[in-house]
Design goal:
This protein is an alpha/beta fold and 285 residues long. It has one domain: Collagenase ColT, N-terminal domain (Glutaredoxin). Strands 1-6-7-5-4-3-2 form a seven-stranded mixed beta sheet. α2 links the parallel β4 and β5. α4 crosses α5. The radius of gyration is 19 Å and the shape is globular. About 2% of the residues have low confidence. Bound molecules: zinc ion (ZN).
Amino acid sequence: MVIGRVAVLALGLAAGAWAAPPPAMLDVAPEAVDRAPLLPADVGWLDRPAPGWKHLQTEHFVLHHDQKIFAAKVARLGEQFYAAISADLPNLRDRAAPARSHIFVFRDPRDWQSVVAGTPGLEPWTASFVRGQVMYLQETGTGVADKMETLAHEMTHLVFNRFLPVRLPLWLNEGLAEYYGEFAYRAAKGMGQSRRDAFRPLRHWTPLADLFAATDYPADPAEVARFYATSKYLVGYLLLKQPRDRWDAFFGRAAAGEPALPALLETYGWADVAAAEQDFARFAR
Ligand SMILES: [Zn+2]
């Protein structure tokens, strides 16, 4: 999920990931769309007369859209993000392949309000989200970079749903999505992003004990942005300030379904959450 939007680095954004040729795209007829991975609610959206969906297919995705220019951009960058994020999961395979994930692209805010209102369990602040093999992407934000950061965030969730046999803890899932949201678009464009710009001092963060315990988003909307920021900064700290082999060990255990907190404390040599928070504070401040 992403809230209304808020370098080439070790994680993922390896140089080779961007060297691939542009992905092939094909317009497909409605009757040619594979509906197998869709839930009834997704089919409901696909069958709505408005906004008059057209369908664009790439290797891993089928997009439903009403404007080809933006959809083609989403398709092209979506495949690039898929390549970069999955390159960071070397020991895992795409369990959904060759089935395609679906991406609905909403441009009309009124349609988006219907999506949010009609989807049980969705927070009112939701700007885009992934459910299973389906991404609901709202074209929102002022510039292309904003929009593509949202795509990179949601693509992280979609790739994890394809590759991971388990669901990661909320902080790790959202922290990585925010991390890719921050860096993936710039990397795709061949632009760097300084770590200092990406991680300016964080004045307030969610206490790590609360962060680790969270299985749902904070009820207080004011806490939500803080929860996302803390998740992103913690992932950034682990990836940028700690040796990479520790990340590989920790993430491997979490992705295999081990309880993440004991794996985290053990891998990074922290006696308890307070010790972790002490080190984290030096990075975040
Ligand atoms: Zn998210």
